[in-house]
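Example record used in the benchmark description.
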Amino acid sequence: MKDYKEAHRIWYQKVGKAREAEARVKIKIETLTHYGNGKLTCSHCDESRLACLSLDHINGNGCKERDKLKRWGYRFYLMLKKQGWPEGFQTLCMNCQFVKAVTDRVKQREIPS
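Model output (structure tokens):
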């Protein structure tokens, strides 16, 4: 049993981590493409660099939802896929996310306009 555990640890270090990373990137691309209306781009400005793109909760309740579900990142993406891609999300770049957050705060009068 000890030899098996050691062999598995070595295999995981060499192969398993890489496969896991590939799977995470694949589900991220699939999710962002779905919520980007079939394109891997920001829904507002057409930014297409994967490192700049993220999933936006259209109603602005992302933090509350992630805390409630205890899922974020690729696990959240997997859950969305399993649920059949529910509505209420869009693909945005980080700049557009920031502008949206500031605009939402101004509308709520949390900060002066």
